[in-house]
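Thread: "does anyone have the structure for this chain?"

Original post by V.I.:
We have the sequence but no experimental structure in hand. Need at least a predicted one for the grant figures.
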Amino acid sequence: MKDQKIELPDLAKTLAPAFQKLEPAERPVLLAALERLAAQRYRMWANEHPDPHVKAGLRACADREEEIARRVESLYPDAAESQDKLLAANPEFLHLNRTLFEERPLKDQFVMQAQGERAGAAAWRAHAAAAADPSVRELLQSCSPLEEANAAFLESLL
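Reply from O.Q.:
Generated one for you, tokens below.
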């Protein structure tokens, strides 16, 4: 029997139906909450990884995720409350965050996360393009390079 290649879930495609249910104005603040969850995942990986270089790189990724969240949340006066309500009304986001990575080899988790980072960069560019206010557009656009830096780091480990 030939080795079968296991297809990994595509984070963007998996989350897209849940995002489509949201109002466009709600998507960035919820995406910021997901950035914070990704930061937690990076810190967990860093705490468990034996290589000091990789640990430092994963922590830098976590810091970038938190920076993205801070930037986007700064656009919403009640960001935390909005995020709590959106996550409570859409529990599939937390469920998918918990289960998509479970029991997969670390390499596969890195591949999935890197793909998610590339999709996140594209999402921030799309949100920026849709923003009427130039300062909001600039802020949202500034998130894309941070996502791309995380993807590049993860891809360097593969």
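V.I.: this helps a lot. The longest helix spans residues 106-130.
O.Q.: and Residues 24-156 form one domain.
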